[in-house]
Design goal:
Layout: H1 12-20, H2 25-33, H3 39-46, H4 50-62, E1 66-72, E2 77-82, H5 84-87, H6 90-104, E3 142-143, H7 160-168, E4 173-174
Antiparallel strand pairs: 1-2, 3-4
Length: 177
């Protein structure tokens, strides 16, 4: 099934999902981050078909999230490593894991903890204000357009309703948790 490309959508979330939103992608990135780096190992761990895995790995390499490294010459065999661009998605993966721990597991505790290597204590993803350096609750969030000029999506183009809503007030929109 072909999906609608989001690479030109006027939204950073949409453009991110265009690259990383296919449902196998976060699991492949997770496996590679865990050190499961060879095609056969990833395929076995995820119980994914070879053609789907091959397509996803090719897309992740072409989008710069993974790099392919040869570890054997004859026959040629490769493993996959996170690039800096791929590693920048780790906080998003941890945030998805935290949400899953809270909402999909009895007692709110999933099977894996992510810890700080040097002290061994659990880490969590936080929303922090870069100015006052304090944690911000979801109820304290507002979304604002970076540029208040025109040039937003035209009527009936993707994103036109949300852009119009964001532009309606100079203080943007309070995110409503």
């Amino acid at each position: 099934m072909r999906r609608t490309p989001l690479d030109t959508h006027p939204c950073s979330i949409a453009r991110t999902l265009d690259i990383a939103g296919e449902w196998w992608t976060p699991l492949i990135l997770r496996d590679v981050a865990y050190g499961v780096r060879r095609f056969g190992e990833i395929q076995e761990d995820l119980a994914i078909s070879a053609n789907v895995l091959s397509d996803r790995l090719d897309a992740l390499v072409s989008n710069g999230l993974l790099e392919r490294r040869e570890y054997q010459l004859r026959p040629s065999r490769h493993e996959y490593r996170l690039t800096g661009k791929g590693a920048d998605l780790l906080p998003a993966l941890v945030a998805l894991m935290e949400w899953g721990d809270r909402w999909t597991w009895p007692g709110g505790k999933g099977p894996v903890r992510v810890v700080h290597e040097s002290c061994g204590h659990a880490v969590r993803v936080q929303l922090r204000c870069e100015e006052c350096d304090r944690e911000v609750a979801p109820g304290e969030l507002r979304a604002k357009l970076r540029h208040l000029g025109g040039g937003g999506p035209a009527e009936h183009e993707p994103g036109h309703l949300s852009a119009r809503r964001l532009a309606a007030g100079r203080d943007g929109v309070k995110l409503n948790p």
